[in-house]
């Protein structure tokens, strides 16, 4: 356990220790097959993931950003097209749109869930919009019923950014199995994380699954035959065998994340901080536990002085990031995003974290607000 006076924001060392022996044994077996790229380990993982999520097709890729890029390319989104995306998200959601040569159409979020506001999507849709990219931020699905109905009405695909929300549920479906494509990241701190980079695309459409399979691997149909201009974006088999091991306990991991979140919510409920809500039709997986307070900076200073890790996700809206300043948006167009940038703060939450850390963190936060 880390030093009790020093609580990290995230700590993977204990998790690694739990998987070390089993992973090394799998790597040993893999070494004997000599198949380090794609092959049976990756195929096995893809089938297991498809079964877990109840989706027809899973195509693993090198990272979550590539997953979005490849999904957009599969729909032919490119130069001259626009993609609707929330302004309050991790940079990669928007960067992926630029990487295919399209233009992001940034829209504001909802107050209660940090996710894209369907009303703002409706206001933004026009002929140039070729996809909608909701992000299930922090682990909570966006309002997908509304978003899907806008997609259907205008005949445009909905590509879910599920990087932070593996295992989340919207009504009866897992995140990534609600829109046309789900794009996931296996970055180490995610709910299902590799010990390196990784990602995947989920879809129920065979035709698109085939297309993304080709795109991730140079468009190869058979040796020396290339049907599409693709890229190199394959999941390493070394990560695939780890992810197969970790998938077996991902439901327990999510349960533990939710337990820790409940403990935080209970201890903070009588204090003037906004805590993440449970919405009736959605299951949050708490990849990130984010509170809001007008006293955010004071809380941050206090945590820092008590050697407690925290993060600000995200202090700056996308439209103020240097590459996007030229799009000409103003802060006034995004009141909810601007407010979130000012008052969010994310507290440590990872499955191996002891309950006492939550208690200590809440003690410090509450003392700051008393
Ligand atoms: C919301 C969101 N989208 C996309 C990504 C990109 O994933 P990756 O880092 O695997 O490329 C991330 C990664 O943190 C993310 O949080």
Characterize the structure shown.
- The structure is a single chain.
- This protein is of the alpha/beta class and 370 residues long.
- It folds into two domains: 13-107 and 114-247, Type I PLP-dependent aspartate aminotransferase-like (Major domain) (Aspartate Aminotransferase, domain 2, 3-Layer(aba) Sandwich), CATH 3.40.640.10; 250-369, Aspartate Aminotransferase, domain 1 (Alpha-Beta Complex).
- It is built from twelve helices and 14 strands.
- It has a four-stranded mixed sheet with strand order 1-9-8-5. A three-stranded parallel sheet has the order 3-2-4, sandwiched between helices.
- It is globular and about 70 Å long.
- The two termini are 30 Å apart.
- The mean pLDDT is 96.
- Pyridoxal-5'-phosphate binds next to helix 3 and helix 4.
């Amino acid at each position: 356990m880390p030093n009790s006076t020093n609580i990290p924001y995230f700590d993977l060392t204990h998790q690694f220790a739990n998987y070390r022996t089993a992973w090394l044994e799998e790597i040993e077996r893999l070494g004997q097959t000599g198949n380090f790229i794609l092959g049976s380990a990756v195929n096995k993982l893809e089938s297991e993931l498809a079964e877990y999520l109840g989706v027809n097709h899973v195509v693993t890729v090198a990272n979550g950003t590539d997953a979005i890029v490849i999904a957009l390319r599969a729909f032919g989104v490119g130069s001259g097209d626009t993609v609707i995306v929330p302004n309050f998200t991790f940079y990669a959601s928007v960067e992926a749109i630029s990487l295919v040569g399209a233009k992001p159409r940034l829209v504001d979020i909802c107050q209660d869930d940090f996710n894209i506001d369907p009303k703002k999507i409706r206001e933004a849709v026009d002929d140039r919009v070729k996809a909608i990219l909701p992000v299930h931020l922090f682990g909570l699905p966006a309002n997908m019923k509304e978003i899907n109905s806008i997609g259907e009405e205008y005949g445009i695909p909905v590509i879910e950014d599920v990087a932070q929300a593996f295992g989340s549920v919207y009504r009866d479906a897992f995140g990534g199995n609600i829109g046309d494509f789900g794009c996931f990241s296996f970055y180490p701190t995610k709910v299902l994380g590799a010990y390196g980079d990784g990602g995947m695309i989920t879809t129920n459409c065979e035709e698109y699954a085939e297309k993304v399979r080709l795109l991730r691997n140079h468009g190869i149909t058979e040796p020396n035959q290339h049907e599409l201009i693709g890229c190199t974006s394959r999941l390493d088999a070394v990560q695939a065998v780890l992810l197969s091991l970790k998938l077996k306990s991902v439901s327990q991991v999510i349960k533990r994340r939710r337990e820790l979140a409940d403990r935080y919510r209970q201890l903070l409920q009588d204090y003037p901080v906004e805590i993440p809500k449970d919405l009736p039709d959605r299951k949050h997986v708490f990849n990130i536990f984010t509170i809001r307070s007008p006293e955010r900076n004071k809380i941050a200073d206090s945590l820092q002085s008590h050697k407690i890790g925290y993060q600000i996700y995200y202090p700056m809206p996308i439209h103020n990031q240097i590459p996007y300043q030229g799009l000409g948006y103003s802060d006034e167009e995004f009141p909810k995003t601007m407010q979130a940038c000012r008052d969010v703060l994310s507290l440590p939450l990872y499955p191996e974290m002891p309950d006492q850390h939550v208690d200590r963190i809440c003690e410090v936060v509450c003392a700051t607000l008393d």
